[in-house]
Amino acid sequence: MENVPPAVIEADNLHKTYSGTVAVDGIRFSVRKGEIYGFLGPNGAGKTTTMKMITCISPRSSGSLTVLGMDPEEHPAEIKARLGVVPQETNLDPDFSCHANLTTYARYFDIPPETAEKKADELLEFVQLQDKRDAPVDKLSGGMKRRLILARALVNAPEILILDEPTIGLDPQARHLIWDRLKLLRAQGNTVVLTTHYLDEAARLCDRLVIMDNGKILIEGAPADLVLEHVGKEIVEVEKNDEIAACIRTMNVPFEIFGDTIQIITQNAHETARILLDQCRPKKLLTRPATLEDLFLKLTGRSLREGA
Predict the structure, then answer these.
(1) For 136-294, where are the E strands, in sequence order?
(2) What's the number of CA atoms in the CB half-sphere (13 Å) around residue 32?
(3) Closest Cα to residue 215, out of 52, 50, 29?
(4) Which residues of the chain does CATH 3.40.50.300 include?
(5) How far apart are CA 157 and CA 1, in angstroms?
(6) Residue 238, strand partner residues
(7) Non-local CB neighbours of 243 within 8 Å, separated by 6+ positions
(8) CATH no. of 7-222
(9) CATH code for the domain defined by 233-289
């Protein structure tokens, strides 16, 4: 029997309502110790609200929720002391240097000054900001600020790290550096919970994830397994016109039409493409692996969502 790590966050029939509006609608999930667990969904899906309940910022309306075996409403101080939080917004103190941001934050956890000084230097090295030790925050790039916020979240050696859109607005190099740091934290036994709109980020990082929409969890599992089960192995894309659409319908294969593109789901893209070129003669054809983005759009639709 597989040895499954214990759960560090558990929710069952969890609800959150704001002024009659249902933000989280009876969700159930379990985050295991030592994994990276992701929450995906369009704007307004309920991801950030769920994070606020986990981090003891917003009380639940009903249902059960435990974090590290404790109820967030009964033991908020004890839970917060064992969490590290990377918010979506940049909320560093502009009056302090990088190093001082970390040592000042350490005071909230009653970390002795000498220990805090050493910890700050270690964390700056961990996020590759040691050469910016004494630089003021307003002189940092966006990527550097996100890395400093990650370092700050680790000051208290948290058992669970909560990240809300950790790489939002960053260039590819900065994103990859943060990904590397998160993978290293997981390798060291840390539990990481994140929300992200970047589906490639979720596919690369998450051991398991949920996709939410309208306050509900639509699906949960390992990214690759979910894509294979609910989308397929590969996709062939061709231009959409009436003749090609009619031809594809005669092939008896699953397909979807998105704008000016027809997507054919297949287990063998090479063979499907050969048949398409022979029978339907499209001018343009593309083969690719099925992705988490395909699954996400299949479940949540393609219409643009506004709001948080």
Answers:
(1) 160-164, 191-195, 208-213, 216-221, 234-239, 255-258, 261-266, 285-289
(2) 12
(3) 50
(4) 7-222
(5) 32
(6) 262, 285
(7) 280
(8) 3.40.50.300
(9) 3.30.70
CATH 3.30.70 location in the chain: 233-289
**What is the C-alpha to C-alpha distance for residues 21 and 304, in angstroms, rounded to an integer?**
20
- Note the residue count of the chain: 308
**pLDDT per residue of the chain (308 residues) written in tens, 0 to 9:** 467 889 999 999 999 999 889 999 999 999 999 999 999 999 889 999 999 999 999 999 999 999 999 999 999 999 999 999 999 888 999 999 999 999 999 999 999 999 999 999 999 999 999 999 999 999 999 999 999 999 999 999 999 999 999 998 888 998 999 999 999 999 999 999 999 989 999 999 999 999 999 999 999 999 999 999 999 899 999 998 889 989 999 888 888 888 889 999 888 899 999 999 999 999 889 999 999 999 998 898 755 444 44
